[in-house]
Amino acid sequence: MRVNVAVVGLDRLSTSFALALKRYQESPKAEHTFNIVGRDLRGQAMKEAVKLGALDNFNRKLQNAVSQADVVLVNVPPAQLQELYARLGGTLKSGAVVLDMTPLKRPVMGWADEFFPRDAEGHPLVYVVGITPIVNIQGLYHGDREVRSARADLFQNAEVLIAADAACPAGAIALAEDLVTLVGAQPHFIDPVEHDGLIAATEGLPALTGIALFDMLRQSEGWPELRRMVNPTLALTFQALRDYSADDLVAFFSLGRQDVLRHLEGLLHTLETLRDVLAEEAEDGEYIKLEAYLERVAQAWERWEVKRHSGEWEKGATAQSMPGPFGGLGRFLTLRRPDDNHNARS
Predict the structure, then answer these.
(1) Which fold has domain 195-279?
(2) Strand order in the sheet with 33-39
């Protein structure tokens, strides 16, 4: 089966997803081929993605890029999301599925509910499923998020989180699951509310910490010399300021404000503890509390990294496959009839 895919917003993650689909279709047992069109406001990003082999073509005009797409992969900066979803609502064909890769899922599901078209009985004709790819260990310690760093195996043997609201048809979720499997990853289902709370810790809090650190250093008396001494250790903590505009950061932090605040309180408490540990005077030339603290944290980190390398986490409830009434990828893409839409919601 030939599947039309549009990638709206090109960076390392979305381009790697497209490359992985292209890699799949070259395998001897491939049952699907993917015609992939890219769209980005940066012409150079689109050209680089074509050069890498991730795209068959690109188009700067949104309507031209997505109007024939069965699947639309959305990965744009936070400040652009609401306007993008408003425009997508009048552009996508009936039955299309939007896979949203942006960090926060609850806001985009709200915009999809507001802007996406419905039939005469109020049932949605276009669907959104949130996905969050977790890169494998080979791609983990890598700060470059540009298209040039994309690779087809970035998600191989890793997990991709799948988040959908209760009204999303099972067939749309199954389509997301199928595509995740085709790129070599393992699907992991998660509630959108839980997802956004975790993203606040793994994306929001590091970004906020880096912003605060930069702001503190630039206001210090030593900044004229400090600014000359920035190497990767410090520069990577400023990554959010490099990747996002001020408007994007405002959108991200305001949309996930309560979750970020909750994690920030925890960080402040830990920093106070660490400050007290550092303030302790040496006992017989040894900083016993500092050594104990760092040893405890280092051991916990080593245990985490071993599991991150192996991917063998503690087993919780097993996520069930969600084939839905359309049997996964191929049949869901033929969804056009009103009766099928109704059945998918039951």
Answers:
(1) 6-phosphogluconate dehydrogenase C-terminal fold (1.10.3660)
(2) 57-58, 33-39, 2-8, 71-74, 97-100, 127-133, 159-163, 186-189
At residue 38, what is the residue type?
G
Give the number of C-alpha atoms closer than 13 A to the C-alpha of residue 237, restricted to the C-beta side.
14
Residue bearing tokens 């690109």: 58
CA distance 64 to 173: 26
Q: How confident is the prediction along the chain (346 residues), in pLDDT tens digits per residue? A: 899 999 999 999 999 999 999 999 999 989 999 999 999 999 999 999 999 999 999 999 999 999 999 999 999 999 999 999 999 999 999 999 999 999 999 999 999 999 999 999 999 999 999 999 999 999 998 888 999 999 999 999 999 999 999 989 999 999 999 999 999 999 999 999 999 999 999 999 999 999 999 999 999 999 999 999 999 999 999 999 999 999 999 999 999 999 999 999 999 999 999 999 999 998 888 899 999 999 999 999 999 999 999 888 876 544 444 443 333 444 444 333 334 443 333 3
Domain boundaries 2-190+319-340, corresponding CATH code: 3.40.50.720
DSSP symbols for 42-93: -HHHHHHHHHHTS-SEE-SSHHHHHTT-SEEEE---GGGHHHHHHHHHTTSP
Distance in angstroms (rounded) separating the CA atoms of residues 200 and 270? 17
Which of 78, 77, 119, 70 has the alpha carbon at shortest distance from 99?
Answer: 70
* 265 vs 260: CA distance, rounded Å: 9
